[in-house]
Amino acid sequence: xxxxxxxxxxxxxxxxxxxxxxxxxxxxxxxxxxxxxxxxxxxxxxxxxxxxxxxxxxxxxxxxxxxxxxxxxxxxxxxxxxxxxxxxxxxxxxxxxxxxxxxxxxxxxxxxxxxx
Amino acid sequence: xxxxxxxxxxxxxxxxxxxxxxxxxxxxxxxxxxxxxxxxxxxxxxxxxxxxxxxxxxxxxxxxxxxxxxxxxxxxxxxxxxxxxxxxxxxxxxxxxxxxxxxxxxxxxxxx
Lengths: 116, 112
What we know:
The complex is a heterodimer.
Chain A: E1 5-7, E2 10-13, E3 19-24, E4 31-37, E5 44-50, E6 53-57, E7 64-68, E8 74-78, E9 87-94, E10 106-107, E11 111-115
Parallel strand pairs in A: 2-11
Antiparallel strand pairs in A: 1-3, 3-8, 4-5, 4-9, 5-6, 7-8, 9-10, 9-11
Chain B: E1 5-7, E2 10-14, E3 19-24, E4 29-37, E5 43-50, E6 55-58, E7 61-66, E8 71-76, E9 85-93, E10 100-102, E11 106-111
Parallel strand pairs in B: 2-11
Antiparallel strand pairs in B: 1-3, 3-8, 4-5, 4-9, 6-7, 7-8, 9-10, 9-11
């Protein structure tokens, strides 16, 4: 079975531009969550979606938005890019909605975003 | 904000030796998880320990949890070159919003 897949793997954007990152969860997983990982730091929670509804949001500005489609794939959008948005963006999927109950969360390989 | 803090930030050991990484956290937790990340890639779940457990094993991995000290340790025995990676602890907080919080990680380098 395919794991969590993300696209694109690498991209370079200019300040002020907008970017869309895509994620396909493991088949059967209805929960998708997004994380931002700045170089040298641990991942920071951005969003969680379950059954197409937002279930959690981290401490990120409104420039960050996401959605989940009927097939449970997801997109993360970032508007008005800043240099500080340069990071590895990780998508993770899980079978259950709770992220804290201990059910295993599976991560994709990430999308490297560089803002210049 | 970071809930967990790994210690040390970086660790280099000879192949075959044991590697120990520590994680301290600030608030009461439901569970604590350890993840591995190879350079610039996705995270791989290694092991989960619940707040009512004190020790868990998985292959060459041993995790301990001391809730009174709000700390956990990850021991990798008989290290191999393939163990070179960053290791993160992630905590799920008790009665709080439904998200897990990662520490900054320990970068482990296994020397041949």
